[in-house]
Amino acid sequence: MASTVKRHAPTAALLALVGGSTLIRFWAAHRVGAPWITPDEQTYGLIGRSLYESGRFEILGRDAGLLSLVYPALIGLPLHLLEVENGYTAAKALGALVMSLAAVPVYCWARALRVERRWAFAAAALTLAGPGLAFSGFLMTEVAFYPIICLSAWMMARALENPTLENQAFLLAAILVAVTTRLQAVVLVPILVLALLLTLLFERGGLGRLRRFGPLLGALVALASAWTLLTRSGSGDVLGSYQVTTSISYDPLAAGRFALYHLADLLIMTAVVPVVALALLLARAIAAREESVQVRAFVAVAAAYVIGFTAQVGLFASSLLGRLGERYLLGLSPLLFLALAVWLQRGAPRPALATGVAGIAATALVLALPVRFISEAAAPDAFSTIPLFELRRHLGDPGLKLAIVLATGMILVLLATLRSRWVWVLPALAAVLLVAGSVSASRFVERQANGFRRLTVGDDPRWIDRFAEGPVSFVYGGEYGFSGGGPVWASLFWNRSIANVLTLGSDHVVGPIEAHRASIAPDGRLLVGGRQVEAGAAVASSAVAFFGHFRNQGGSYVLWRLDPPARISSRVSGIRLLSSDIDVRARMDVYACRDGVFELELAAPEARRLELRLDGRLNRTVDLQAGTVWKGRITPRVRAERETCALEIVTQGGGVHAYRFEFVRSG
């Protein structure tokens, strides 16, 4: 009985680790009130739901293009079967479980490499500790890609150890699953070639060994050719939504710099030691001092994955992102933690030359990493930089740079000087740093996501469906332009009654959505391509008023039942939507301007002088008294029925609050 319990104890501990991680990550995910990374999250949710409803990837009846197959299929079922709120919660619970399952291949692979249970368990625990697992609270492909990349690396190492047809078939299947999860995984093909070459280097073998991989390489070529023919015959793009990466030019020097920046980010993302451990294992294998075939295969694969992914992401970021794309490297973390476990199992060998070179290189990398990449704007793509961003606000740029370099140096000194019996301190220190970073990142994304929800949909995200009496047109006027049309995507994710999207003027919605550009006629009619828009109901920001009846409001947006034809009565610019504050200048354009009056109620905490300009001409000057509400009425000049009029409020010093700024029509 005792032997049976002892035999099953590691399995129970691993299951407890996965279960505990799932519960903790779901608890953190549940505090994220709405999709935040726009339009990615909403897109995956919508096409996942569409997959089970129509068998196609569509948004508002339009083909959304090739983004992912595995991940939308994973989250689409709960979003299809359940109400939106419950489906969203279930999808996040599923995400917490899937990301936590990455610990299983890490532990099992470590044991296959003859790593002691304590180090194997440490690698599995570190796999679940990093800030990147905060993605379990988001509808992103990172959720599924995290364990899949680890699994594909394991299958690649097995094939390198023993290239039987069975092992090559498993590797081919793993590559296909990875590619259909995220097209970024096409880099696994050159990674495989690099891993083969590294294996030959370690073993001092000839190129003849490559012939044994003929079936796998031939199958990959055949699949690539079939995919190219299939997409081109269907008038599609070979790389789907990633096709843009082939239509721009790249600067090799910039791509090289960004690859080094991402190597530095890998050091930060894994608390330094795992990357150095892999470098020392690589040096050991190159020097032909590694006797284990399995470990040589692992080192070849892990090194090839790091080189291949950082080169790919560096190339992409240098021209298309302009900042750290850490989330595209997230799947490397389990391999690096596994490298740490293997290195510890080897007795933590630290040859002077290799350790010194690795330490100097690591320090140089973090020293070269620009502080500008550690910012609030970069947070959605690099969760590990979030705690550093918090530090930057207190220490400033020079102070943060010094803190990063000193922390890296201290960790490297520990790595080089700790006695063998104290090497457990290294994974323990990494765990403390990763957990602290994870807590910081989870709190940050919770605040950001919930704030974004308040801006876009308010307390009740499904308010449009609850009050709409039929199909609704969403009219987007460029509000919160930093989000690339975030209010549109947020409302579309939560509400099924939105039938189409209209954009005013040059305002643009980013992502795979068909938005019709609308113009406003002098009498307020909405026109698309010169034709009158037919709509019975519309949602627009509170800055837009329609001819019709107010139905309800959610966040900064209002639902209107329209009087036919669809016409805008007025549109305000220069006033903050939720606070109604005026910073410099506010303007109201009124359509079919007749038989009405502008009514204003303005105040400021300090004395302010305002200019009120009617149709570009000074109408009057107003001296606001501190803390006193000024009320006024301005009647526009008599105009022809189809003309417009405009009233501007010009402040000196800003800080003016508009309790009321509207055009009241007579009758």
Summarize the structure.
With 667 residues, the protein is of the alpha+beta class. It has helices spanning 2-30, 40-54, 70-81, 84-100, 103-112, 117-127, 142-161, 165-181, 188-203, 214-233, 252-269, 273-286, 293-321, 333-345, 352-368, 386-417, 425-456, 463-467, 486-494; strands at residues 58-59, 62-63, 472-476, 498-504, 515-520, 526-528, 531-532, 537-541, 544-546, 548-554, 557-562, 568-575, 581-590, 596-603, 608-614, 617-624, 630-634, 645-651, 656-665.
Low-confidence residue ranges:
none
Fraction of residues in β-strands:
15-25%
Mean pLDDT: 89
Rg measurement, Å: 29 Å
| Total number of beta strands | 19
Number of helices: 19
The best one-word shape is: elongated
How would a crystallographer describe the biggest sheet? Answer: 9 strands, antiparallel
State the end-to-end distance: 89 Å
Instruction: Provide the number of structural domains.
Output: 3
Estimate the helix proportion, in percent.
40-55%
Task: Return the structural class.
Answer: alpha+beta
Question: How does this model look, in words?
Answer:
The protein contains 19 helices and 19 strands. The protein is α+β, with helices and mostly antiparallel strands. The chain has three domains: 422 residues, no CATH class; 114 residues, no CATH class; 89 residues, Jelly Rolls. β15 and β16 form a beta hairpin. α8 runs parallel beside α10. The longest helix is centred in the middle third of the chain and has 32 residues. The chain is elongated. It starts with a helix and ends with a strand.
